[in-house]
Amino acid sequence: MRYDKHPIDFSAQIALLKERGMIFADEDKALEGLFSISYFRLASYWRHLEHRKSRQFKADTKFDEVLTLYAFDQHLRNIIFSAIQNIEIAFRTRVSHFLSMKYGAFWFLDSALFKDAEIHQSCIEKLKEEIARSHEEFIKEHNDKYDEPDCPPSWKTMEVASFGTLSKLYSNIADNEIKKIISRSFQLPSYLFLENWMKCAAVLRNCCAHHARLWNRRFSVIPKYPANLPGQWIATPLRRPEKLYGQLCCLAYLEQSIQPNNSLKRNILELMSGHPEIDLNAMGFQQDWQEQPLWKRES
User: Fold this and answer.
1) How confident is the model at residue 128 (pLDDT cuts 50, 70, 90)?
2) How far is it between the farthest Cα atoms of the chain?
3) Percent of the chain predicted with pLDDT > 70
4) A single Pfam family, by name (predicted)?
5) Is the model's pLDDT at 219 over the cut of 80?
6) In degrees rounded to 5, what are phi and psi of residue 286?
């Protein structure tokens, strides 16, 4: 089938939404919203308000409420992205430190240290691309001075590695004992949890970086949830582990071992309490979530 729909201007978009039953209190404000946020980006935030077959909106669907939900999600992404930055930096620092101390500055180039040679080779190729793209002065200074090996030492290379590449390198390391040391530095008793949580964090980071919707998203990569952990954790099993709440629990737990007085928990509590109109169930939040040890406000 050939696509034959034609572009329509912002006024026509509003007319179309009104025809389908959406309520506009201020059309000038709606025009400003559509001029700054595309129709199809906002469509992700009103999809749950449509009748599936007719595409008509449910009764009392307001455009202003869609904008409020969009702004909430934008704020939520900013909070999460900031937390993931802390976690990513700590992860690359600890991976580089512990492996360099045991295996030397160029451990990542040694294929004998990795389980899967093909995955390792793809990571090295990716690292070389990331080094070549980098504009960091310490990379340029190193390349101007040294010819061998092909890459700068770990403490330089890992600083320009993408989160995804770093996560794949860690998962592919054959030495489980060194992986345990790294995972325990994050208060995780098993390296399998850290492997999984970093993969999830890398996917979540990409969602944030590309301004993707987080509210009501179902994640294809789902964190593993241990029943007990040495730090503050959740006491109630998750009902919907594929939703955002589970991801937030993992981030909040990891932050405890990086910055004990971090702002993630406070920011999430403030954001949720400031938006009582938001459906927390769509993000997988449980009714008693604020009473969980991980989220409970400190007195």
Assistant:
1) very high
2) 68
3) 100
4) Abi_2
5) yes
6) -90, 155
How many Cα atoms occupy the beta-carbon half-sphere of 167 within 13 Å? 18
263-275 pLDDT per residue, tens: 999 999 999 999 9
User: What contacts 109, CB < 8 A, 6 or more positions away?
Assistant: 124, 149, 150, 151
d(CA 99, CA 167): 14
Residue 166 counted as domain residue: yes
∠ Cα 156 86 67 (to 5°): 130
Exposure of 274 by Cβ count < 10 A (0-12 exposed, 13-18 middle, 19+ buried)?
exposed
151 beta partners: none
- Give the pLDDT confidence score for residue 299 in this predicted structure: 57
At residue 260, does pLDDT exceed 90? no
Beta-bridged to residue 57, according to DSSP, are 50
**Within a domain: 136:** yes
Higher pLDDT among residues 262 and 125, named by residue: 125
The CA distance from 216 to 243, in Å, is 7
Please give the mean pLDDT across all residues of the chain: 95
Residue type, 191: Y
The pLDDT-based confidence of 195 (bands split at 50, 70, 90) is very high
Q: Is the pLDDT of residue 5 over 90?
A: no
By the 8 A CB rule, do 167 and 198 touch?
Answer: yes
Q: Which residues contact 254 (CB under 8 A, 6 or more apart)?
A: 87, 90, 186, 197, 201
Average pLDDT over residues 27-55: 94
Q: Is residue 298 part of a domain?
A: no
CA-to-CA dists, residue 251 to 84, 128, 161, 244, angstroms = 7, 29, 21, 11
How many distinct structural domains can be found in the chain?
Answer: 1
Instruction: Report yes or no: 48 and 216 within 8 Å, Cβ to Cβ.
Output: yes
Kindly state whether residue 31 falls inside one of the protein's structural domains.
Answer: no
Joined tokens for residue 50 = 């449509």
Q: How far apart are CA 297 and CA 294, in angstroms?
A: 9
